[in-house]
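Chapter summary example.
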Amino acid sequence: MEIQYFGTAAAEGWPALFCDCDICRRARAAGGKDLRTRTQSMIDGNILIDFPPDTYTHALNYSLNLGQVQHWLIPHSHMDHFFPVELIHRHEHFGHNARGMLHVYGNEAVEKAFYDAVLIDRFKVHPLDDSVAFIRLKPFEEFDAQGYHIIPVPADHDKRETCFIYVVEKDGRCILYGHDTGMNLSGEAWECIYSRRYSLISMDATMGKQKTNGYHMGLWDDVEFARRLEEKGCIDGDTIKVINHFSHNGGMTHKDLEAFAGEHGMIAAYDGMKVEF
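The structure predicted for these 277 residues follows.
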């Protein structure tokens, strides 16, 4: 399997759009891996995770033909993870020769955002009935998509909706894609996570070295998260451990993040990074 990280920042991007903090100034000056768009990834070119406002930029930067990708996993309804008004461009009027139906998966809040978007006047002229289908997910309700077995696991994020992290399996390989979550997961969520052995885990690192009580994780939470999985036999020395979803509020440059990750047997993601496993 392969995962590519198109964007690796939290909601505000990095450098943040309206920010003049020291870390954002340094990122603008340094460029390269210190420039981060909003989080989005793809597994094997088949399963897209997240649909942020930066999707078009990612398509340009990485030569993506998203009209050929039929399965999109949306963790929750926040704008940096789901920007549904762009879906109109899946209509044949705007995007020709797309591959069959696009399946968008998410919770009830994502579903509401989806239908609120497609009901605006512009969508009425170009309805998406034949090009995009929404599939509402329920916690722990496993499903298959294009040969991948997927489990939506409830996250510790926005209490106003059932946010998800995802377990994705295929051909004996397994990914835990765990962004936008804190450590205060339910017992049932932990048990589901502990039920698999992982080839790769991708962890939320929004807070940097800071601590918060839920909603997001920081670097020390990532160390603890990996320790718990190792203790349960879910990961071992061959498991690839990635930290991702970074914020300038964490106060660390990519070099800083890379140094911390290296000390703890992890990889700090950057925009465009590919990992094969």
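To summarize the output: The longest strand covers residues 148-154.
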